[in-house]
Design goal:
alpha/beta; Rossmann fold; Pantoate--beta-alanine Ligase, Chain: A,domain 2; three-stranded antiparallel sheet; 11 helices; binds pantoate
Length: 286
Amino acid sequence: MYLFKRVDQLREFLNGARTNNRTVGFVPTMGALHDGHLSLIKRSLAENQVTVASIFVNPTQFNEASDLDKYPRTPGKDLEKLAKVGCTVAFLPEVSDMYPEDLDTSLSIDFSPLDETMEGQERPGHFAGVAQVVKRLLDIVTPEYLYMGQKDFQQQLIVRDMTRQLSINTTVVTVPTVRETDGLAMSSRNVRLTDDHRQRATVLHQTLLSAKEKLAAGESPSAIENWAMQALQIPGFRPEYFTIVNADTLTPLPDTEDLPKRIVACTAVWASEVRLIDNMLLRGQL
Ligand code: PAF
């Protein structure tokens, strides 16, 4: 596996590697890699000749300094995992090279209505930061395919919308969420859960599964949302939202029989100090 820490080194390598119709797949990460990330890398490896994985804890997408400080950083272990699955290139840039003082990396894109609910509402500025870093990374890597996890459902929609609005010639591929055997969605934050909270964190997946059954049985989305907020209120847990929306626009569902083809339920729950998110398509496919 090649390891690059500088933008110009990576660019030089990719210029040489991109010959004979070889395609480049790209997986942006913030490190603390788990099997969810590795499933993105494996998918890219299966579909491209060159796979680049970046590890960069992007300061511009954290709206709380304490969350940025607490974000787990395990570069040594991450590189071992990437090498083990056969990733072609690991890219670990410095903040100064990602955001050089003499380069304007700011973006002003209107993502509405996609950024008006859920994470967009709870974490002001978060998606502007995500869009900024993904755009900068796409400018550097110029991949044919970009692999994003379903786990961050709203994020993958916003990144898709960004590539559309800026006419970026990269196809976004969304890869299904990887779960622990008890259903908990894999996340870098899971390591911060106490043993007790880790056991009870299955409540997110269970509530999403029940919501899917309830919608199929004809219960109204708003009744299911209210039920779910109660179901998630177990000792030590505090649900922030449980929202059932159109999976393409993230807008509320009509109060009629005429439901859209793709419906997603998204939730954010605090387990003490740890914020967990998860989602499930209640109708339609990824
Ligand atoms: O999902 C993440 O880990 C981050 O938001 C991303 C896409 C790597 C951008 O920093």
